[in-house]
Amino acid sequence: MKKWLWFCAGLACVLPTHARELDLQKRVYVAQQVVGQAPEIDGRLSDDAWQRAAWSGEFTQRSPNDGAKPSQETAFKILYDARHLYVAIRAFDAEPERIERRLTRRDRIDGDWVGVQLDSYLDRRTAFSFAVSAAGVKRDAAISNDGEGGDSNWDPVWFVEVQVDSEGWTAEMKIPFSQLRYAHRTEQVWGLQVERSLFRKGERSLWQYIPRNAGGWVSYFGELRGIKAIAAFRRVELLPYVVGDVQKFPPEPGNPFATGQRNRFAVGGDLKVGVTSDLTLDATVNPDFGQVEADPSVVNLTAFETFYEEKRPFFIEGQNILSYRVSAGDSPFGNDQLFYSRRIGRAPQAYPSLRSGEFADVPNNTSILTAVKLTGKTRTGLSVGLLDAVTARERAEIDLDGQRRFETVEPLTNYFVGRLQKDYNSGNTSIGGILTATHRKLSETHLNFLNRAAYSGGFDFRHQWQDKTYYVDLRTAFSHIRGSERALLRAQTSSRRYFQRPDADYVRVDSSRTSMSGHGGFFSFGRGGNHNLRANFGVMWRSPGLELNDLGFLRQADRVLQWVWLSYRWTQPFSVFRSLRVNFNQWSGWNFGRENVFKGGNINGGGEFKNYWRFWLGINRGAAGLSTTDLRGGPALKQPGSWSHFFNLSSDNRKAIQFGFGGFNNWADEGGSRTHNVRFWLRFRPHDALQLRVNPFYTFNLQDLQYVSTKEHAGEPRYLFGRLNQKTLGITIRLDYSLTPDLSIQYYGQPFLSAGSYRAIKRITQPRAARYQDRFHVFTPEEISFNEASGVYEIDEDGNGEVDYTLSNPNFNFRQFRSNLVLRWEYRPGSTLFLVWTQERTGYDNAGDFSFGRDFDSLFTTDATNVFLVKVNRWFSL
Known about the structure:
single chain; 878 residues; mainly beta; Immunoglobulin-like; 24-stranded antiparallel barrel; nine-stranded mixed beta sheet; 5 helices
C-alpha cells in the first residue's frame, strides 16, 4: 500500500508539468444608459430604448462538445437606468415548435432556459444568478467560492417575461440594483456571464467561454462596463406574516392536553435592511416554519446522531457565508461543522419528571424569540457573516387532577456566530476565521446536564496558483465548553468520545471536571483544474476533547484520517460516451492512541452515454479494523473487513418518462453480515405543468454483531449483541403541479416500514481476539429463555437456575407516514400565500417480523395527526 501511495503522489506531481494554462480572451460588454422611457417588461424587445444597445453573441459550447460552436445562436443586450439593470436575451431556434416549455415552481426550472450571472463585487469568487425558462419560471441563486457553492434559496425581487416567436424565444429582465451588492464607485466594473441551455440536445453554451476542466467559474467571467453614477441603495424591506393552524390528533381519555384539537394563531415578520451597498441586516421576530417539508423517516441503530438538512428559509439564505465545515469530501465526517443551524429552535432537551397520574404538554420545538444576521462582502474583498439568535425558555405544563404545575425543559439560550473571510490576489488567496458562542441561563438544577457555555472557533487559509491549477487548503477548529460536573461527565462519556473505554490509556474520565477543550481541522493539497487529471491528498484530525454540538455538528472526536483521491475525466464525447470520469480513493484512520482503526479504498466512475443515459458504479474494500463505539463505552471491538459495491443507472432525463435504478451490496469477510439495497425511481411528466416522481427503496440488513444493551453481572459489564435481521421498505412520492410560474401545488409523502428481529443473543468475551468466533459467546438455550408474560429475555450465565439479569425484547416494527400538501401562491412579487396540510402517522411494536401487507395496513389504520395551516406574508419595500 505504501508503494502505491508513493506512486500516486509521484503521478500527481509529474503530470501537472504538462498542464496547459488557460489563455482565454476576456470578453467585455458595455451597457448603455436608458434614454427616455424605460423598456416595458413584456418579453417582446420592441421598445425604443433597446435600439441604443448593441447585441453581443458568438457563444461557445461548454457541453457536450467543449469549445465547439453551438447548434443555435444566442445574443443579448444590457441597459441600465438609475434604479434597474435591464437584460434582453434572444435565443434563436430554427425549430421553435421544439422549444421545451416546462412549467415548474420557482428555482426548479426545467426545459430550455437562459440566464445572466453578475459578479457585482468583482471579487472573482461570488456572483448573483438570474435565470428564466422558456415557460417563464424564475431561478435565482447566490454563487460562492468561485462556483463551488451556491444558495438557490436566495429569492430577490426582480421581473422577467418571455415570448416565443418564429425566430426562437426571448427573455426580458428587470433587476433592481437594490437586490445586488456592489461598491460605491463612479463607474462600475462587474464580472459578467450569460448562458443558455438547449434542452432537446442537452447543450449548454456560454458568452464567456470557460472550459469544463477550468479551475474555477466566477474567476473566468467576462466584464460588464459602462454603468456609471448609480446610487448605492440602502434598501429597507419588511415581510410581516400572519399564520393560523388547526391541529387534529387522537384524543387520550383522561389527558386534558390531548382533547383531539389544538388551535394556534401567530404573527411575526422579517426585516431586511441594506446597511451599506454591500452589507445586509436580516432580522426575524417569532418566525414560523409551518410550511417547511418534513424530514425523511429513519431508523437509527448507531451510537451517533442523525444529520438533517436545514430547510428553514431564514437560516438557508446566506448560509454559504456562515458555513464552516471542518472536513473535506463525503467521508463519514463530511457533515462536521462549527455552525449547524438546526441547533437553533431544536426540540427541548429535557423531559419533565412525572408522578403517577400526571400528564404533560411538552413543546415540540424551542421558540425562536428573535434572530438577527448581518451578511455581505465589502469592496475590499472582506466577507462578513454575523448571526445572533435568542430562543425561549420552554416549559412543560403538567396536570394532576386539574392541578397545574410547570417544569422547564429548555433554558433561555443565546447563540452567536461570527465569520470573516478576506480575499487577496484576485481571489486566489483567502484567509478567514469563525467564532461561535452558546450561552444558556441554567437557573434550575435539573438542567445542569447541559453546558452552561460553549465556544468554538477556527482559522482557514486557501491558496491557488498557476491559473488555479493547484491549491492548498487549511482549516482548523477549536472548542471550549463549561458547565457543571454533571454536564462535563456527560460530555466525556458521550458516544462522540467514550473516555471511559477501559483499553484507552490516553484518555480518562474526570468526574470533577467543569470545562473541556479540543481542536481539529484538515489540511489538503492538490490540483483542481486545467487538466483532465485531478488529485487531492490530505489529513483530517479531531482531538479527543473536541466538542461542537452545542451549535455545530460533530459525529466523532478522537480521530485522524489520511486520504488520497485521484480523478481522471474525459470532457469531450468519444466512442459511446458524452462524458466519463474515473476516481480512485484510499483512506486510513487512527485514534489518538495511535491505533489504526480503519483503512480501505475504492474505485468508482461513471458518466453519460450519447443516448443521454447516465450511470455510476464503484467497488470498495474495507480492511479489518477496530470500532471504539460498538460497545458503547466498552473496549474496542475488532470488526472484520468487507467488500461492497454500488451502482446507478438512469434514462434520458429529457423524456416525459424517466426512470432509473440503483443500489449497493456489502459482504463482511467473517460472520455472515451483509447488506443489500435496491432503489428505483420514476419521473412522469404527462403535461408541461405536471410532474410525478416515485422513488421506492428496499434494504435487507443482516448484522451478526448488532449492539443490544449493556448489563452488570458479578461486578463486571456484559456487552450484549444479537444477530439482527432487518428489512426496510419505503416509497417517496412527490407531485408538482404548476398552474402558473407563481402558483403551484406540491405534495410530498413517504410511507416507511422497518422491522428487525434479533437472534443468537451473545455477549462479547474477547473483543480483540484474532479469530472472529473467539470474540463472543452465544448463549445456549440453557442460558437464555424468553419470558412471554413479561416480554423479556432471562439470562442465567452460570446455569444454577437463577436469573442473573434480564434483557428487554429488542425486536421492533416501526411504521411511519409523513406527508405535506402545499399550495404556494406568490400573489405579488415578494408576497406569498401558503395553504398547507401536514399529516403524520407513527406506530411501533416489537413483533420483529416483516410483513408488507400487515404493516402497511397497520400504518394506515394508525391514528393520524393532521395540521391545517394558512400563512400569508406581505412584502414591503420602504
